[in-house]
From TrEMBL:
Protein name in the entry: Crp/Fnr family transcriptional regulator
Organism: Bosea caraganae
Record Gene3D superfamilies: Jelly Rolls
Alphabetized GO MF terms: cAMP binding; cAMP-dependent protein kinase inhibitor activity; protein kinase A catalytic subunit binding
InterPro entries linked to this entry: cAMP-dep_PK_reg_su-like, cNMP-bd_dom, cNMP-bd_dom_sf, RmlC-like_jellyroll
The organism's place on the tree of life at top rank: Bacteria
Stretches assigned to the Cyclic nucleotide-binding domain: 30-107
Residue ranges of coiled coil: none
Record-level GO cellular component terms: cAMP-dependent protein kinase complex; cytosol
C-alpha cells in the first residue's frame, strides 16, 4: 500500500460525501473476502465506502486499500470500458453503489463533488503507477 497522506489534495477531498451517496445510491453490505467486482467485468456502478475497507488489485498486485469515505470504480463508470482491477472487501464493509445517472446527478448538482472525484482518480493513478 502507498502512503499518499502527504500528497496535497483539494479542500473538496476532505468533504465527506458518504451521506449523499447513502441517500442516492444503493447500499450493499459485504463480508470480508467478498468480491465487489473483478477485472474484466462490465461497469455498472461507482462505489463509495461507507464503512469498512476494500482492496483494489490488478493482475494480482495490490494497488490500494480504499477506506471509509473514499471512492473506487469511477474510471470504468465514466469510460464504459471493462474493469481494469478487482475490488475485494477486506473487512465487513458497507458500500454505496452509484449508477451512471446518479453519478452524473452528483457531479452536476453537488458543489465540490467533481473535485472529490478528480482527487480519487488521481490518487488511484498514482497508486497504480507506484505498483508497476
Amino acid at each position: 500500500m502507498n502512503d499518499l497522506s502527504q500528497t496535497p489534495r483539494p479542500a473538496a477531498q476532505f468533504i465527506d460525501f458518504r451521506q449523499l451517496a447513502r441517500g442516492l445510491g444503493t447500499v450493499i453490505n459485504y463480508a470480508a473476502g467478498d468480491i465487489v467486482f473483478r477485472e474484466g467485468d462490465q461497469p455498472a456502478y461507482a462505489y463509495i465506502v461507507l464503512t469498512g475497507e476494500v482492496e483494489v488489485s490488478s493482475h494480482g498486485k495490490l494497488i490500494e486499500q480504499v477506506s471509509e469515505g473514499r471512492a473506487f470504480g469511477i474510471v470504468s463508470l465514466i469510460d464504459k470500458k471493462p474493469r481494469s482491477a478487482t475490488a475485494k472487501a477486506i473487512e465487513v464493509s458497507e458500500i454505496a453503489l452509484v449508477d451512471s445517472k446518479q453519478f452524473r446527478y452528483m457531479v452536476e448538482t453537488t458543489p465540490n463533488f467533481v473535485w472529490y472525484v478528480l482527487g480519487e482518480v488521481v490518487d488511484r493513478l498514482r497508486a497504480t503507477n507506484s505498483a508497476l
